[in-house]
Amino acid sequence: MTKPPILGARHHPAPPAHRVVIVGSGFGGLFAARALRRSPVAVTMIADTNHHLFQPLLYQVATGILSQGEIAPATRDVLRRYPNIRVVLGEALDVDLEHRTVTATRLGRTFDTPYDSLIVATGVRTSYFGHDGFRHWAPGMKTVDEALELRGRIFGAFETAETEVDPVARAAWLTFAVVGGGPTGVEMAGQIAELSHRALRRDFRVIDPATARVLLFEGASGLLTSFGPRLSKVTERDLRRLGVEVHTGAMVTDMDEHGVEVRMADGTVQRFGARTKMWAAGMEASPLGRLLAEASGAGVDRMGRVEVEPDCSLPGHPEVFVVGDLMALDDLPGVAEVAMQTGRHAARLITARAGGDPGSAPFRYRDLGTLAAISRFRAVARLGRLSVWGFPGWVLWLVVHLAFLTGFKNRFTAVLHWAISFIGRGRSERTITSRQTDRVGPVA
Amino acid sequence: MTKPPILGARHHPAPPAHRVVIVGSGFGGLFAARALRRSPVAVTMIADTNHHLFQPLLYQVATGILSQGEIAPATRDVLRRYPNIRVVLGEALDVDLEHRTVTATRLGRTFDTPYDSLIVATGVRTSYFGHDGFRHWAPGMKTVDEALELRGRIFGAFETAETEVDPVARAAWLTFAVVGGGPTGVEMAGQIAELSHRALRRDFRVIDPATARVLLFEGASGLLTSFGPRLSKVTERDLRRLGVEVHTGAMVTDMDEHGVEVRMADGTVQRFGARTKMWAAGMEASPLGRLLAEASGAGVDRMGRVEVEPDCSLPGHPEVFVVGDLMALDDLPGVAEVAMQTGRHAARLITARAGGDPGSAPFRYRDLGTLAAISRFRAVARLGRLSVWGFPGWVLWLVVHLAFLTGFKNRFTAVLHWAISFIGRGRSERTITSRQTDRVGPVA
């Protein structure tokens, strides 16, 4: 343990290699790192979680299908084969654009990491649009912590209903309110419906889980509006067939322990008893975005995302790239594909520079389409101008996700286990921890 | 939802069926319930966790091999096929022996459940022998919560070491102290050694995980003393070969954030720097044991376990059985096999009584032996007077655990996944939640 502490560590190329710091281990950061694995650069990835989260399947952790490890492999495990990449657990607090260092902290100790090129990919987090009190009652769906909290609340609600004598109180425990009709909200609503109507069907003796109500509230006039009007209608129809009560044009105006208050499309205000609530309605940029914008003079959009140059660099700082959800460019959507492609784009420009080519190139998004699962055997997919739904859409969804999971985990048995659990009635990950047993409390 | 609330629920046999209440979902409770599945009785199982914990593999959750769901299936899922068994999530607070009711609570609401026969199987919990402050620094290994807390601390310690500049501080982050040389302590020490020397070998750039120290402290003169002197010696030798520093005759007298203070076998007091500590040194009966003893006049042993009649019943209360770890009878050890057999014994007597036979029969323990894994490919096994160790011991260990897991989960792919992870270098469950990232704090 006599090795030097921060950079120039044992497997790094000998200095003066071009030093790249990547902040964030999501799709943007991970794909940037992988694209640099054979470049003559020394990469340090700083992230505040020890895992890369495959966010598109997070709702399956929240509903008991997958374990955390199955969709959140340790980042250093994913990158262990690349000796020029170092992974550091710490929360990035600030960037000194002048002296080119990133300040990060862990367990109260702060450390600086110098860079020649920087890629910031810290993404977005749940926004409650100023109603910060909602956080207490309705966890978001962006982190493993949030998904585990929701999992405990969902399975705990059925448990409490089983012992609740008062029929009104019991109905509120068996009512689940999902706020937000984008992919995450649609997938959560679909899975809770499947859970209550199919997976848990034979598990209780007093309550009938199939009587559970799943409410889906969306402020816009339709679900999955980014998928186009046809798939939006298909989604609504499929969810209704599953038993989900879909309310579009409906704004959640208040909530408390027992339920939600909603201004409906017709202007009336209604109250729904619902003990379990989840928030998939809004996002805001992570705090590092605003710091970077203030330091560089870059603009931010209404979500707080940083307006970047066409090559994804920070205005006036060609050595700093902002990629993925944290970036505002050409109204690109906050999806995994944009993050992966912008991460790779930044990596390519940095590789060229490390090789002596100071040129730049604008980012061009190649839209490969977008997918959302509604239930077992039904999904919607938009591929350019092509729309696919129903069982063919689901097969497409399954193939894409199997390919992704296999790529990450490279462990056939894990994927097989997943496929069997998902298609079958297996909900093998249902642990409620004792932190959750005794309370319906805030996400820490 | 017009069904009656507590008993007499939809699938229960029509009253007046003999009502059996089982408190606890561990080995004792679960095997009692299963043994009653075809009896003409209405069973209610009350437990304060929603899962049955396969405790012998809990150390594999703490070291990233298994997910919670793989060893802690939902109890109501395990028992769903038996319509005469109802599962209720709640903490049993008290037993009214006179009126024959169990009072339990969940989310601040209490409810009473009447019984004709009662089986109490709430087991034991971690005891710090009066040093309750140790709990903060050294979680036990009895619950899923404790294992997840330890998992976050173990993987988090390597992460912190990777960024720690001071060599003394770094060494303390790379030192793991296991207190207690029974099966759990031996298995934890062995797995942490495997983790640092093998599984994490290529994952870091600054630290070399193979330099991690694993300390095992045992107050008695040998490890695994219940396995007999020969296997005790084999275990010590095998652990030392793995790199574990074994200290027998060593009592931990104090601990804090940075390390432990130990009175060694030679009487000297030594201090070891160790950020990560775990406690596998002692157990005490769950609180319900003392309440039952006080109400019935039964004695308790020094661990607080209830001294029962030869048929496992509470003195003066033939309708109440205390089984498993909570029971003190004939110096039987607190192992899964005793819990399973006493649970089944109580169930058999209750079935006979429900059929009109008021007789009793003393419990006879059939000792099937005991096993402990030391590392990949090495284990020790005592089968009556036969001792097996090394690779043959490990094969035996694997067969027994595969049979158990398959029996519980009945899901071949999950077992396959486990076998491959365990034998390979896979440590796929490493998630540190954000509750854990920023602190080394107490178990909630």
What does this structure look like?
The structure is a homodimer of 444-residue chains. Chain A has 444 residues and is an alpha/beta fold. Chain A is 34% helix and 25% strand. The model of chain A is unreliable at 1-10 and 437-444 (pLDDT under 50). Chain A contains 14 helices and 23 strands. Chain A is globular. Chain A starts with 17 loop residues before the first strand and ends in a 7-residue tail after the last helix. In chain A, the strands form 7 sheets. In chain A, strands 3-2-1-7-19-18 form a 6-stranded mixed sheet, with helices on both faces. Chain A has a 4-stranded parallel sheet with strand order 11-10-9-15. Chain A folds into 2 domains: 18-126 and 284-354, FAD/NAD(P)-binding domain (3-Layer(bba) Sandwich); 134-281 and 370-437, FAD/NAD(P)-binding domain (3-Layer(bba) Sandwich).
List keywords for this structure.
disordered C terminus, alpha/beta, 14 helices, six-stranded mixed beta sheet, disordered N terminus, homodimer, FAD/NAD(P)-binding domain, 444 residues, four-stranded parallel beta sheet, 2 domains
Strand order of the largest sheet of chain A: 3-2-1-7-19-18
- Note poorly predicted spans of chain A: 1-10, 437-444
Summarize the largest interface: chains and residue counts: A-B, 82 and 82 residues
Work out the count of structural domains of chain A: 2
What is the CATH fold-level name of the largest domain in chain A? Answer: FAD/NAD(P)-binding domain
Q: Helical percent range of chain A?
A: 25-40%
Q: So, CATH architecture of the largest domain in chain A? A: 3-Layer(bba) Sandwich
Mean pLDDT of chain A: 89
- Structural category of chain A is alpha/beta
Shape of chain A: globular
Strand fraction of chain A = 15-25%
Question: What is the terminal separation of chain A in angstroms?
Answer: 35 Å
Question: Describe the biggest sheet of chain A?
Answer: 6 strands, mixed
Q: Which value, in Å, is the CA radius of gyration of chain A? A: 23 Å
Let me know the number of strands of chain A. 23
Instruction: Indicate the multimeric state.
Output: homodimer
* Top CATH class of the largest domain in chain A: Alpha Beta
Helical stretch count of chain A? 14
